[in-house]
Specification:
Layout: H1 6-13, E1 18-21, H2 25-35, E2 41-44, H3 48-57, E3 63-66, H4 72-85, E4 91-95, H5 100-108, E5 113-116, H6 122-138, E6 145-151, H7 158-170, E7 182-186, H8 193-197, H9 206-211, H10 218-224, E8 226-227, E9 233-236, H11 249-259, E10 265-269, H12 276-285, E11 288-293, H13 297-312, E12 321-324, H14 335-342, E13 345-346, H15 355-363, H16 368-371, H17 376-386, H18 407-417
Parallel strand pairs: 1-2, 1-3, 3-4, 4-5, 6-10, 6-11, 7-9, 7-10, 11-12, 12-13
Antiparallel strand pairs: 8-9
Helix pairs in contact: 1-6, 3-11, 4-5, 7-17, 11-12
Bound molecules: adenosine-5'-diphosphate (ADP) and magnesium ion.
C-alpha cells in the first residue's frame, strides 16, 4: 500500500489535536514529530482530573497514554478510567515494544492500539486514520450543531431571538426540517426567561442534565426534557441558581457536547451571563456564535467589553457574527458599522424593532413566530436562520441597515470603545 504523506493524512483527519498523557517530554516530542508537528499534540499531566476537564472542554482526536517504564501502572488506571467515562474516545498506548508486560497491560486496560516508541514514526498517522475510520463504521454518531447566542447584558433580546428561532426551525418552515429536532438551552440571565416566553414549566434543569451526563440517552432526554408545542426540547437553568455551584464548567460543556448526539441543532441562550469563563468555553465549543446587540450606547460598550474579555481568554471572536437587534432605521448607525467597530462579522439580517408585535404575542402566551409569520421580525429571523451552517452569516454587500455611519457618530463610537480597543 502506498503511504499518504503526513500532511495529507492530517488534512484527511480534519485533525483536532491529540492529547498525550506522559511524564516524559521526549515521548511527547516523538509523537508530535510522528503526527506532523507540535500543534498536533498537547502534552497533559497523566491524571484523571486534568484529562477529564480537558476532554470535556475540547474532545481530542485521540488520547495517547504512556505505558513505558514506571508509568505502566498509572497508565493502566488512566486508560480504564477514560474507557469507562468516555467510551467513544480513541485511546492509544505508547511505550517500548521491548517491554512486553507494558504492552499487555495497555491492551488489557482497553486501549484501541499500541504505538512502539522504537518503531517507525511514519506509521502512527496511518494508524490513527485507520482506527478513526473503523470507529466511524462501527459507531456512526451523527452530530448536530451548536449555536451560541451571546448578549453582553440583559435586555438585548437574546431570549426572544432564541425562542423564536427554535420554534421557527423546529416547525420546519424556517430553514429546512431538522432531523432530530432543536433543543433550546435556556441558560441566560435573568434565568428561565425562555421557559416564560414559551409559556412552559420544567422540573428538569441543566444541573440535572450534568448529574445524569453518564447515563444520557434518547429515552432519558425524551422523558426528562420539557417540550414546547412546536416540538422544541427545552433545558433551562435550575430554579434555584445556587445549584449551579455543584457543577463544573468542564461537565457543563461536556453535557452540551454530548447533546449534539441527540439533536440537530442546539441553541444555547447565554444572554446576560456574567460568568465569562463559562461563556468562553461554550462559545469555543459551539459551531457558530451570534452576538446580539442593539444600537444603544450602553449595549455597544458592554458588548465591546464582553468581546475584550473573551479575547483575553483566547476565544476567536473574529469568527462571531453580530446580530443587530431592535433595529431602528435611519439613526445613522447600522449593522456593518457596529460590527466593524466591534471586530465582528455583520449579519446580513438585522432584526427590526417590533416591540408592540412581540408584546402582543407574549400577551397571548405565544411567540411571534407562531402568531404571525409575516411579521418583519419573523421574516428577518427566517432569513437569518437560512444562513445557519454556512459558516459565515454575513454578507458584506447585503446589509440594509440604513445609511453608513456619519462622521460624528463614528467618532463618538470610537470614543466609547477606546478603553476596549487595543487590549489584544
Ligand atoms: N426586535 C425587538 N424589538 C422590540 N423589542 C424587542 C426586540 N427583541 C426583544 N425585544 C424585547 O426586549 C425585551 C428583552 O428581551 P429578552 O429577549 O428577554 O432579552 P435578553 O434575553 O437579552 O435579556 C423583551 O421585552 C422583548 O420583547
Ligand atoms: Mg434572556
Amino acid at each position: 500500500m502506498t503511504k499518504m504523506p503526513s500532511s495529507l493524512v492530517a488534512a484527511n483527519l480534519g485533525l483536532t489535536a491529540s492529547l498525550c498523557a506522559s511524564d516524559v517530554r521526549a515521548h511527547v516530542d516523538w509523537l508530535a514529530t510522528a503526527l506532523g508537528g507540535p500543534e498536533q499534540v498537547t502534552a497533559i499531566t497523566p491524571d484523571a482530573r486534568s484529562l477529564g476537564e480537558r476532554i470535556g472542554a475540547t474532545p481530542p482526536r485521540a488520547v495517547f497514554i504512556d505505558f513505558s517504564g514506571e508509568q505502566a501502572g498509572q497508565g493502566a488506571r488512566l486508560a480504564a478510567h477514560l474507557r469507562r467515562e468516555w467510551p467513544d474516545l480513541l485511546l492509544i498506548g505508547i511505550g517500548h515494544a521491548s517491554e512486553t508486560q507494558a504492552t499487555l497491560t495497555a491492551l488489557r486496560a482497553g486501549v484501541d492500539d499500541f504505538v512502539d516508541l522504537g518503531g517507525p514514526p511514519g506509521e502512527v498517522l496511518q494508524m490513527l486514520l485507520t482506527l478513526g475510520n473503523r470507529r466511524q463504521e462501527v459507531r456512526p454518531v451523527p452530530r448536530g450543531r451548536t449555536l451560541a447566542l451571546l448578549g453582553a447584558r440583559g435586555g438585548l433580546g437574546v431570549s426572544t431571538l432564541a425562542c423564536n428561532l427554535a420554534a421557527l426551525l423546529q416547525s420546519g418552515r424556517g430553514a429546512g426540517m431538522p432531523r432530530q429536532g432543536v433543543a433550546l438551552l435556556d441558560m441566560g440571565l435573568p434565568a428561565r426567561d425562555g421557559l416564560l416566553y414559551l409559556d412552559m414549566q420544567s422540573g428538569f434543569s441543566f444541573v440535572d442534565g450534568v448529574h445524569n451526563l453518564r447515563r444520557l440517552d434518547q429515552t432519558l432526554l425524551q422523558t426528562a426534557l420539557a417540550q414546547h408545542a412546536s416540538g422544541t426540547a427545552v433545558l433551562p437553568l435550575p430554579a434555584d441558581l445556587t445549584q449551579l455551584r455543584a457543577v463544573s464548567h468542564a461537565d457543563s460543556v461536556a453535557l452540551i457536547q454530548r447533546m449534539t448526539e441527540f439533536f440537530d441543532l442546539q441553541i444555547a441562550d447565554l444572554g446576560g451571563l456574567s460568568n465569562l469563563d463559562f461563556v468562553a468555553q461554550v462559545a469555543q465549543a459551539a459551531d457558530e456564535v451570534w452576538v446580539v446587540c442593539d444600537q444603544s450606547i450602553g449595549a455597544i460598550v458592554s458588548t465591546a467589553q464582553l468581546l475584550s474579555e473573551l479575547r483575553d481568554r483566547q476565544v476567536p471572536v473574529a469568527n462571531f457574527s453580530l446580530v443587530l437587534n431592535r433595529l431602528e432605521k435611519g439613526v445613522g448607525l447600522g449593522s456593518e458599522d457596529i460590527a466593524r467597530q466591534l471586530g465582528l462579522r455583520a449579519s446580513a439580517h438585522p432584526l427590526p424593532a417590533r416591540g408592540a408585535a412581540l408584546l402582543g404575542a407574549a400577551a397571548q402566551g405565544r411567540l411571534l413566530a407562531e402568531t404571525d409569520r409575516s411579521d418583519p421580525y419573523v421574516q428577518a429571523l427566517a432569513a437569518l436562520a437560512r444562513t445557519l451552517g454556512q459558516g459565515q452569516s454575513h454578507d458584506a454587500g447585503a446589509a440594509s441597515s440604513g445609511p453608513p455611519t456619519s462622521a460624528p457618530w463614528s467618532q463618538r463610537m470610537n470614543g466609547w470603545l477606546a478603553p476596549w480597543k487595543g487590549r489584544k
